[in-house]
Amino acid sequence: MTDTALLDVDAVARWAEAHVPGFRGPATATKFATGQSNPTFRLDTPSGSFVLRRKPPGKLLKSAHAVDREFRVQRALEGSAVPVPKVYALCEDESVIGSAFYIMEHVPGRNFVDPRLPGLSREERAGVFDEMNRVLAAIHSVDLAATGLSDFGPEGNYFARQIARWTKQYRATETETIPAMDTLIAWLEANLPADDGRRTLVHGDFRLDNLLYAPDAPVCVAVLDWELSTIGHPFADLAATVMQWRMPPGEEGRGLAGVDRAALGIPSDEEFVAAYARRMGLAEIPDFNFALAFAFFRMGAILQGVKKRALDGNASNPERGLKMGAFVPQFAEAGLKAAREG
Which residue intervals define the domain Aminoglycoside phosphotransferase in the entry (predicted)? Predict the structure, then answer.
């Protein structure tokens, strides 16, 4: 597949010249290898570089690939303690390229796919993780009223709502029976904690490879991929971060399982959670194992959707989509292990 097989670059340039201040074509597009859900492109033009994110082609699940929500939340966070790219324009007219898309600032920076951070010193690794912790706390400290995000998600029990949503989406994309996933869903439904009233902005997919760091310092310059953001329970984001580190290391698992983290200068799960609690002024993180089991379940459901799109020919990167989909049973088993630990 060519870089521009998913994008009519000329149509984008014509639209952008009318809607993005300072945009001047012609444009060339290069597709980023990351961004499984919403295909993402770098646009290079005589007026500079931009980034475009679009919904993928084909039949999509309802409420999935919400580029309009991504656009809204990043615009709301502009100038806040949460670093985001500047967003320029949202196109909801599907006649332009076949689906909704938006154009935002291209932010130069380092993207760390492997959380072991090869090539960095112990001190640099510690700085990267501490900054990640700071940014997570900043997201959960956003003033919803001041940013106009009070209605960005419904009221009520976030975990109950999410379990129902992702169970439905998992069933809609199920390609074979995975007993561990069925058992995990049943456990989550039977062990749902009472709603504790915590309600913050949540990123929904907070992990190291969704952050951009400055080229020469452990400073986050942009939080990316806001597709799953909503108003919800902050501990879901925290658990999703820890969940990723319990996966195998390497490009596919992107985890830290079995890694001597102390030797590398990387905080343990407990140290990261404790630092977050201090930043948020909390004495403890209650029901964290439930949140962790939920995080494994939800990621398993997401990856099942990626696998289904790859099989249907709608994935941004079909080969990678199938590789990621192969992890679904592993996420389900890890979710059950977290549940038993609790």
Answer: 29-253
